[in-house]
From TrEMBL:
Keyword field: Elongation factor, Mitochondrion, Protein biosynthesis
GO CC list: mitochondrion
Translation elongation factor EFTs/EF1B dimerisation domain location: 53-183
Record organism: Pseudo-nitzschia australis
Protein name: Elongation factor Ts, mitochondrial
Length: 201
């Protein structure tokens, strides 16, 4: 409120000039806080209309802000924008327009409101329209996407929950190195019969 009042005073009551003043101030605050460590945050998942699912990680500085409604809403906006965008880079995501404002502009505005460094760290997508994709986020900070051939989204979610709980060191059979396969101390047994697992992240 005080920032708005100051902006109107500086602009002699011109709302457009005041808005530009606030925008520049937000940019300056975002640049100033960019060097601060942002190691907390949340993971969000969103499903696109093209059969793809997208998972994003958004970081902040403290666990307190990580639970803030404004921050959580921004995480949802980022995930939704990523899902609607389809394939693309992080730069494309940050330039994605949501309700007349880019994700980057929303980030800068959020930094100005909350006072912490906010960063969209990474994005991952799965699915090509011919497979089934599902995901699970545990406590906001462990996220898993599972893509299978056959089965259902519910099965994907069940597998994702197990992955989140067990934290397996390998995503697919091809990822397992020979020294692990040849280790006699690792018990052998029949694996449950699941549809072919395409990808886990």
């Amino acid at each position: 409120m005080m920032d708005c009042k100051k902006a109107l005073i500086e602009s002699d009551g011109d709302q457009d000039v005041a808005a530009e003043f606030l925008h520049k101030k937000g940019l300056a605050q975002a640049d100033k806080k960019a060097a601060r460590i942002a190691a907390e945050g949340k993971i969000a998942i969103s499903n696109g209309a093209d059969g793809k699912a997208v998972m994003v990680e958004v970081n902040c500085e403290t666990d307190f802000v990580g639970k803030d409604a404004l921050f959580l809403n921004y995480c949802g906006r980022v995930a939704g924008a990523a899902a609607s965008m389809g394939a693309g880079s992080m730069e494309d995501l940050m330039n994605q327009d949501v309700d007349g404002e880019t994700i980057e502009q929303s980030r800068q505005a959020l930094i100005s409101k909350i006072g912490e460094n906010i960063q969209v760290r990474r994005m991952e997508s799965r699915g090509d329209g011919t497979t089934v994709v599902g995901g699970y986020v545990h406590m906001g900070n462990i996220g898993v996407l599972v893509e299978i051939e056959g089965g259902s989204a519910e099965l994907c979610t069940d597998i994702a929950m197990h992955v989140a709980a067990m934290n397996p060191p390998f995503a697919t059979a091809d990822d397992v190195p020979a020294e692990v396969l040849d280790n006699p101390q690792i018990p052998r047994g029949k694996m449950p019969c699941f549809p072919k697992l395409r990808q886990i992240w």
